[in-house]
Amino acid sequence: MANSINNLASLYSLQGRYAEAEPMLLRALSMMEKYLGPDHPDVACTYSAALALIVGQPKPDAPALAAVYFNLAVLYQREGKHKKAKKMAEKAKSLRDSMASS
């Protein structure tokens, strides 16, 4: 089911229907993490897709973007990719700090 939701979200994204695609992609990601585990390659692919979708919007959703950066940081840390993990964690922190000061 998660793959179907992910595929539909990808289709919506290609059609420029970002507001519809984002929650579906995040739901698919949550389902994949729950059933496959956070270290599964499909989860990493879905995080990358979520990141591309959110960043590609005219006005990216800062809380969603911060969450994806943070989750990518955790994933990279588990994979031993410490430089990438640090970069994602810093991006998440920067976004959260900017939201807190707004």
Descriptors for this entry?
0% strand; 102 residues; 5 helices
User: H/E element string?
Assistant: HHHHH
Distance from N terminus to C terminus (CA atoms, Å) equals 38 Å
- The Cα radius of gyration reads 13 Å
Number of helices: 5
Structural class: mainly alpha
List the helices and strands and how they pair.
Blueprint: H1 2-14, H2 18-36, H3 41-55, H4 62-78, H5 82-101
Helix pairs in contact: 1-2, 2-3, 3-4, 4-5
Write structural notes for this entry:
- The protein has helices at 2-14, 18-36, 41-55, 62-78, 82-101.
- The model has no long low-confidence stretch (mean pLDDT 82).
- It has one domain.
- Helix 1 packs antiparallel against helix 2 (18-36) and helix 3 runs antiparallel to helix 4 (62-78).
- It has 102 residues and is mostly helical.
- The longest helix has 20 residues, at 82-101.
- It has five helices and no strands.
Summarize the structure.
This protein is mostly helical and 102 residues long. It is built from five helices and no strands.
